[in-house]
Amino acid sequence: MDTTDKGFNSKLIHAGMFDDQFGSATVPIYQTSTFRFRNADHGAACFAGESDGYIYTRLNNPTIDSLEKLVAELENGYRGIATSSGMGAVNTIYSAFLQQGDHMVSTDAVYGPSRVVMEKHYSKFGIESTYVDTSDAELVRKAIRPNTKMLYIETPSNPTMTVTDIREMVSIAREHGLITVVDNTFCSPYLQKPLDFGVDIVFHSITKFLNGHADIVGGIIVSRNKESDDRLRPMMINLGCNMDPHQAYMVIRGLKTLSLRMDRSQENARAIARVLQEHPKVAWVKYPGLESHPQYTLAEKQMQGPGGMISFEMKGGLLAGKTLMNEVKLCMLAVSLGGVETLIQHPASMTHSKMDKGAREQSGITDGLVRLSVGIENLEDILADLAQALEKV
Ligand code: LCS
User: Rounded to whole angstroms, how far apart are CA atoms 133 and 171?
Assistant: First the structure.
């Protein structure tokens, strides 16, 4: 069925579906590594791109195809490329568009490994990078060099919840002929569609809100046009970071409830952020739905809602943060985010503990910072759990 003129929720249910032999109501899982050719000519035609037949699952697979079409429609893009993880997507993008002598400008508080892989590994191949607070356009302009090729944004950023003006970044990038990339993991296309603002490439850790059930790891890249897709797809195939058909099926299943899950998680998050903001043991709360958020007006304009992620600072620093982690019961002490269950973590003693304290604090990751991924449980239960844990700090 052609779903291009349908609403977002209808797309979640029907986009990317194809008619199989038995009229299955769900996308079948083609759990195969390879596909049988009808004869030698058919095999040759598949390799020559003259037949839409499948060849080998690292290259393409009907179940994975279905997910790629679905997410491309949700993001208003040309086509999706599913990857084995969000980091698979990051590496496919870096490798496809950057080469020796190139330079990239990026958000300083990006997801740690997206920065680590660039600074530790791509630097070995002569690729340079500069990390700045991309919510300040002047800093972005100053960081651009003659050899800059890519402007890579994460908004809201993980875990600092800083919001970057995507339209402004596109305008700067166009002045300098840079390719623009947005990590849309924290919002999902339900809350933010970067391609609509003129961005070239959007991607997700599909592990998070898109799948939403904390049971798979994956990624997806969506390009604005065929030209970008033609550079990215062969890179994904040759890096070998393809998604598995069963993983793709799980994500298609999870995606059906994306808007319902996000609405509920966001409703809970709005209420929790307000309660935390008033709590005497909390120094500050950073949530795009609070007027106290530095980019509140921008978030209102750019995002269809503030989402389900909250960062807050405990007054007692490192010890207070750790104590809170030890006292929560319903809120699960775990990394990752975007699932139906509320997850809590303390970056300074966990995800960012290996980072130099100076660099960490410069990126806004302070000792008392706590990150909360709000789930869809009963609001009063999450609030009661946080209240009893805060009481013990
Ligand atoms: N981009 C963002 C914004 C992320 O939060 C993550 C993972 C990735 C990319 C990488 O995706 P993955 O390879 O894990 O699918 N974020 C994590 C986090 O905050 N805690 O654990 C993983």
Answer: 17
